[in-house]
Write a structure and sequence with these properties.
Strand order of the largest sheet of chain B: 11-10-9-12-13-14-15
CATH superfamily of the largest domain in chain B: NAD(P)-binding Rossmann-like Domain
CATH superfamily of the largest domain in chain A: Thiolase/Chalcone synthase
Shape of chain A: globular
Largest sheet of chain B: 7 strands, parallel
CATH topology of the largest domain in chain B: Rossmann fold
Strand order of the largest sheet of chain A: 3-2-4-7-1-8-11-10-9
Number of domains of chain B: 2
Shape of chain B: globular
Helix content of chain A: 25-40%
Number of helices of chain A: 14
Helix content of chain B: 25-40%
Structural class of chain A: alpha/beta
CATH architecture of the largest domain in chain A: 3-Layer(aba) Sandwich
Number of domains of chain A: 2
CATH class of the largest domain in chain A: Alpha Beta
Radius of gyration of chain A: 19 Å
Radius of gyration of chain B: 22 Å
CATH architecture of the largest domain in chain B: 3-Layer(aba) Sandwich
Number of strands of chain A: 11
CATH class of the largest domain in chain B: Alpha Beta
Oligomer: heterodimer
Chain lengths: 393, 418
């Protein structure tokens, strides 16, 4: 690991959290969803389109287009453009890239946007052709998609650590409780532990409420300088620290830890805070086993002890460790690449006094973590960011 | 433990036969190396020639030293099952029709972790397993995790049977029972538990040694069949076609000599008529019928076996025109394989060296006993192997062709080879 001290993110503002309300199925394309998000961001920020000189895009279903084609589609002419195909980690990585571009002066106003559509058959097609390794060595084995991959991991962790389905269920039930006040969550009914435990099996030991529901949606935020954000009168958050890692611990026979375990000291050192200082957590929650892994690897409990933490905390907005305060993907839905933005955008709302549902009381620091790309047997991308309250609405 | 297979009940003729579907077949080009080995019954992965690291999934560069020298290398398949799941939901039509479906994650002793179809007799993880490569219904290699030790009725595992063509309780049509090889195949199929065996015999007015004895096998019914006569094939197809699960084409015409030592084309024409056009006629009549029954319950149509010859792969001048007819048949068999693929029906090509019969009288030993050919065919059906090279001569030819096909051609021209 490098011993060179990392530059901080002083002077960078993160603002204008946008969520285009999700729907289960959409006949529109990913371009439409991303266009809606960008349009809403411009409207809410009061920016002219011509003022946008940096764009960062993620979307699985933009194909055959890339971010480049999207610029012509949306009539944008940025001097800085990035395309981040990192799935559930794209939000944190977009934030990192955009923040450095603004600090370096390569761009002043960067729109970060992620969105995807969901046609009736598009999820199957995405899963079938997700990666070369998945096509060669996973999809021909039952074609269970991510459900099967995470079933293997959940099975392994349950066998080796003593965590139970009820423990995982508590995370899902708490997130659903949080989702009930969030207007855009596709799941609007309370979930009981009993319902969780007795739901139909999908890929043992995973049952229905362990799995996210694919849907269409888009998320966006703005990265610019604090000076400009203040001048525009925009509420904003600041960045205390970030990390990313790809293909961490390749020697592990199964993914018992993610890149966070490799980099969390770096994260907290850069931020100058520790896990105890964090007021709420937005972790990537495609399956509760991954939520639990992040709680461990980000240092909220010792490795292998997460069931004790789960039994001790409520994870609801009114508790001591609010988790996925909009309900996470498990309750809001998984809108493709937008899933990688969902936690970050929600954290921005919480830290800028713009929560759409209940507000975490007195929240000053939020931790967002991302996880993505089951290329073969494990998620390859991990990342995290610690955001602080800047100027509230 | 796997429950032994039960003889299927008679099919209700009113019910619709399920249309065949295939598991996902898309693979990268490099991954097809695993299929090439599995087609011959071997489990091979790439191993780096420089650092010895075993690679999986298949790659273009070594994950350790980035070398591109990654020869396919036979694996013993030993490993540990570290986790498992049983799918009850699938995105793919083929698997959707077949859930629950058991899968495992195996850490191979050779290094990589592999996702496998998991045999029902494998105990809960952690446990030792043996991984093998099999061809699935799409003809693509997949890995299967087996228990370390053999269990009774292991072949009857519901998932495993998707990858094999076991003759048990299946109905087989052997196109020519007049040859010693045809008769050995019929006996081996009966011993393997085939339910019904129809045996073709051309020119029924001519007795053939051993043919009558076949009738004593309770499963056997003789049918007059001449593969050079389209009408004869049509008749047999209309009688038994819709019931044939496995077709084994043993009909062949074999004479010695090459070009100069025989005048005219009569013999060559007969060889082509039986060995090449015979296959074409059979394929035209039986192919479409079998294709419709690719997913017809426990005993659906599963396999088409061609008795070719190792001479199909390179001309053996002493039997030159026969070699040419077998080469033609091999080419046609590849076409048949492509056409049977949508139904998941395996086309098995058997490439024996010289069989110990009257037409190979002048060839020196080793020569293949008809029983050995029969054993190899039943083994291929049981294991789901697609290309079979039975006997020492066939194995040697295979190796020499792979090492240096041109050099081997020169040696054959100079009179060596068998």
């Amino acid at each position: 690991m490098s011993t060179r001290r990392r530059t901080d993110y002083r002077g960078v503002a993160v603002a204008v959290p946008i969520t285009v309300p999700y729907v289960r199925y959409s006949t529109r394309s990913a371009h439409w969803w991303i266009g809606q998000a960008v349009g809403e961001l411009l409207k809410r920020s009061g920016l002219e389109k011509s003022a946008v000189d940096g764009v960062c895009v993620s979307g699985f279903l933009l194909f055959p287009d890339t971010a480049v084609g999207l610029m012509q589609h949306l009539g944008l002419s940025p001097r800085w453009l990035d395309h981040i195909p990192m799935g559930g980690n794209c939000g944190v990585v977009a934030l990192r890239r955009a923040a450095r571009a603004v600090q370096a002066g390569d761009a002043d106003v960067v729109v970060c946007v992620a969105g995807d559509t969901n046609h009736v058959d598009s999820f199957r097609q995405t899963v079938a052709s997700f990666s070369q390794f998945a096509r060669d060595a996973v999809y021909p084995y039952g074609s269970g998609g991510p459900n099967a991959s995470f079933a293997f991991l959940t099975d392994y962790v349950m066998r080796t650590t003593g965590i139970t389905r009820a423990d995982y269920g508590k995370l899902c039930v708490a997130q659903r409780a949080n989702a009930l006040s969030f207007p855009y969550a596709l799941f609007k009914k309370p979930l009981t532990l009993e319902q969780y435990l007795t739901a139909r099996p999908i890929a043992e030991p995973l049952h229905l409420f362990d799995c996210v529901m694919p849907c269409a949606g888009a998320e966006a935020f703005l990265v610019t300088s604090e000076d400009r954000a203040r001048a525009m009168g925009l509420p904003y958050a600041t960045i205390l620290g970030t990390i990313e890692r790809h293909n961490a611990f390749p020697e592990d026979p199964i993914q018992i830890r993610g890149g966070w375990a490799m980099d969390r000291e770096d994260l907290y050192a850069q931020a100058g805070v520790g896990p105890d200082d964090i007021d709420f957590l937005q972790v990537y929650d495609d399956y509760p086993v991954i939520t639990a892994m992040q709680l461990e690897d980000l240092g909220f409990c010792a490795k292998g002890d997460v069931q004790l933490l789960i039994r001790a905390e409520s994870f609801t907005i009114d508790g001591t460790l609010p988790l996925n305060t909009s309900g996470g993907q498990l309750s809001v839905g998984q809108a493709g690449a937008a899933g990688g933005y969902l936690g970050l955008v929600e954290a921005l709302r919480q830290l800028t006094g713009q929560a759409l549902g209940e507000t975490v009381p007195n929240a000053e620091l939020g931790l967002v973590s991302g996880f993505g790309m089951i290329n073969y047997d494990r998620g390859l991308c991990s990342g995290a960011a610690i955001l602080a309250r800047g100027v509230s609405a | 433990m796997t429950a032994p297979l039960i003889r299927p009940r008679r099919k209700n003729p009113v019910l619709k036969s399920r249309e065949p579907t295939l598991p996902p077949w898309a693979r990268s080009r490099v991954a097809l190396g695993m299929t090439a080995a599995a087609a011959e019954g071997r489990f091979e992965l790439q191993r780096c020639a420089h650092c010895q690291a075993v690679q999986y999934p298949p790659r273009e560069a070594c994950h350790q030293c980035l070398s591109d020298a990654l020869p396919w290398t036979e694996m013993d398949g030993a490993g540990s099952l570290i986790s498992q799941t049983t799918l009850l939901h699938s995105h793919d039509l083929y698997f959707r029709e077949r859930v629950p479906w058991r899968l495992g994650m195996v850490q191979l002793d050779a290094g990589p972790t592999v996702v496998v179809h998991l045999h029902g007799d494998v105990t809960e993880p952690p446990t030792r397993v043996r991984v093998a490569a099999k061809l699935d219904k799409a003809g693509m290699a997949v890995l299967v995790g087996f228990p370390e030790k053999e269990w009774p009725h292991m072949a009857d595992d519901r998932q495993l049977r998707e990858f094999t063509c076991h003759p048990q309780f299946r109905r087989v049509f052997v196109t020519d029972g007049k040859t010693a090889t045809g008769q050995a195949i019929v006996r081996a199929l009966a011993a393997a538990g085939a339910d019904l065996i129809w045996v073709g015999h051309a020119e029924p007015w001519k007795a053939a040694p051993g043919l009558r004895a076949l009738v004593d096998i309770p499963q056997v019914t003789l049918l007059p069949l001449d593969v050079t006569d389209h009408r004869s094939i049509k008749e047999v197809a209309s009688q038994v076609g819709p019931k044939v699960d496995i077709l084994i084409n043993t009909a062949e015409y074999h004479r010695a000599f090459g070009i100069a030592s025989r005048q005219g084309t009569d013999i060559a024409r007969m060889e082509m008529d039986v060995n090449y056009l015979g296959l074409l006629r059979l394929a035209q009549e039986f192919g479409p019928i079998m294709r419709a029954r690719g997913a017809d319950g426990q005993s659906s149509a599963v396999a088409w076996v061609n008795l070719l010859s190792i001479f199909a792969l390179s001309n053996f001048p002493a039997h030159g025109t026969y070699s040419a007819s077998k080469a033609a048949a091999l080419s046609l068999a590849q076409c048949l394989r492509a056409e049977m693929r949508p139904a998941g029906i395996r086309v098995i090509n058997v490439f024996p060296g010289p069989i110990d019969d009257e037409w190979n009288q002048l060839l020196p030993p080793p020569k293949l006993a008809p029983d050995a050919v029969a054993t190899a065919i039943v083994h291929a059906l049981r294991e789901g192997i697609e290309d079979v090279y039975p006997g020492d001569v066939a194995q040697e030819w295979r190796t020499r062709l792979r090492d240096c096909a041109k050099g081997f051609e020169r040696e054959l021209a100079a009179g060596s080879g068998t």
